[in-house]
Amino acid sequence: MNSSTKTYSGLVLEYDSGIVPPPYSHVFRLALDWSKGQLDVALDLHYTDRDELSEEEILDEGFTLNDDYSHKGPLNGVWIKPLQQLYDKSRWTNKDIEDGGITVTPIEKGKDNGVKIPANQEEWQLMAQDLIQAIYETVNKEAPLQIHYRLVEGDTSTDCSITVHFSNREVIFEKGGASRTINWEYAIQLMKLVFTPDYHYEMAKEVPGKKRGAYIDCGDGYWHELGKGVVNIDPSFDAVGKIKSGFYDLLLG
Questions:
Q1: What CA–CA distances, in Å, run from 68 to 71, 80, 252?
Q2: What is the pTM for the complete model shown?
Q3: Which listed CATH number (1.25.40, 3.30.1560, 3.40.50, 3.40.1360) goes with 3-138?
Q4: Averaged pLDDT for residues 227-237
Q5: What is the mean pLDDT of residues 138-166?
Q6: What is the mean pLDDT of residues 29-44?
Q7: Domain spans of the chain?
Q8: Which of the ends of the chain has fewer CB neighbours closer than 10 A, N or C?
């Protein structure tokens, strides 16, 4: 880690979804300040161009008629180090982001040091999403993400779950009444895999399967069979197989 962590005491992240159509298009500003030893955050999120749509069109996409959100308050300081690590390893570019993207502004002694455009856009956008989710959990706007999984082999079925607490960057793995904390990065990569395939909800059931196979509930109460109700979108990337192996390793552990 370079010496820059000694000079800046906060970051401002600003994002514009760009060419994404409404009701998904949005902008946000996320200010992060750890100058006083704790992490204080200020979030302003606004969905754009919704006047082009009818109320029904917005609701049909799973949104509400008022999804804008603002918040100021403390966030668990466990997020400071990952933010500093990402900033210190990032490279910056002059590439235009008119089509959408995120900018980062370091704050030193209460003053900004100029807007920077990270070359590693995806990493910063994921970090911002995680931080917003952490805010939502902290204020009880949303519950922690919980994934349930069942593996049936012969006459034996094994149930487990993963609960991702963004509020404090802690992931709990539970099996057979026993729980343990698992590695954050491992869990986040597994969660990315979980949401990669195509889920056929017309094949989903409200109870997990009992026949040989692997079943998953992504937190909405519907169970899907991996390989049948959950299928790979890209034939060159076996997300379903990677989900199975990821949970299998956890079950063995």
A1: 11, 26, 43
A2: 0.90
A3: 3.30.1560
A4: 96
A5: 97
A6: 97
A7: 3-138, 145-252
A8: C
